[in-house]
């Protein structure tokens, strides 16, 4: 009888990509590790996405779509407070980082995206999606750039001194910025 792979939603596979990057960093990101995390074989991932690059392309597209979902959910919870919704969305985006080592792995992934011309569109696409959502929510592209910069800086500062949960640190730093 032929072996069949379980039906695993793309969201589970993409969650496995994030988990593997978080746990071991990009240098050790393999289809085998992703598959094991998602409950699939590496072969099933190749069959489904065509290649590791195909999986990463699909992951990047989904990541940009998730940005929209995160901002929409935050806006729904704070309909009369766009600034509060923006802060909540940025905190939510940070939640995959569980500690300084995980942050280092995400930074290594980001560095790889910046250095590799084939991967760079992943980083720029995600950044553009965050900026677009912030600018639409706040009605101010300059405020959106400012919040993005504070958000990224807050994460770096937290990684150097993780004396409180990342979400608390990011929320405090973003809250200390001036509302437009």
The overall number of domains is 1
Number of strand elements: 0
Q: Report low-confidence residues grouped into runs of 5 or more.
A: none
CATH architecture: Orthogonal Bundle
Average pLDDT, rounded to a whole number, is 92
Q: In the CATH scheme, what's the topology name? A: Tetracycline Repressor, domain 2
Q: Please state the structural category.
A: mainly alpha
Distance between the termini: 64 Å
Compact summary:
The protein has 180 residues and is mainly alpha-helical.
Topology of helices and strands:
Blueprint: H1 10-24, H2 31-38, H3 42-49, H4 52-77, H5 82-94, H6 100-115, H7 120-138, H8 141-160, H9 166-175
What do these coordinates show?
The protein is mainly α and 180 residues long. 75% of the residues lie in helices and 0% in strands. α7 (120-138) crosses α8.
Which short descriptors sum up this protein?
180 residues; Tetracycline Repressor, domain 2; single chain; mainly alpha
């Amino acid at each position: 009888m032929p072996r069949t792979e379980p039906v695993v939603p793309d969201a589970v596979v993409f969650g496995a990509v994030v988990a593997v990057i978080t746990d071991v960093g990009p240098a050790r990101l393999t289809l085998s590790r992703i598959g094991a995390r998602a409950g699939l074989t590496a072969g099933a991932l190749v069959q489904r996405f065509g290649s590791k690059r195909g999986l990463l392309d699909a992951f990047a597209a989904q990541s940009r779509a998730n940005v929209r979902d995160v901002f929409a959910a935050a806006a729904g919870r704070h309909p009369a407070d766009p600034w509060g919704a923006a802060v909540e969305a940025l905190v939510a985006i940070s939640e995959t980082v569980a500690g300084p080592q995980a942050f280092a792995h995400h930074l290594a992934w980001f560095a790889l995206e910046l250095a590799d011309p084939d991967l760079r569109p992943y980083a720029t696409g995600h950044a553009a999606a965050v900026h677009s959502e912030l600018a639409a929510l706040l009605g101010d592209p300059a405020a959106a750039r400012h919040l993005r910069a504070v958000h990224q800086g807050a994460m770096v500062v937290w990684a150097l001194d993780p004396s409180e949960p990342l979400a608390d640190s990011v929320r405090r730093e973003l809250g200390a910025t001036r509302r437009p």
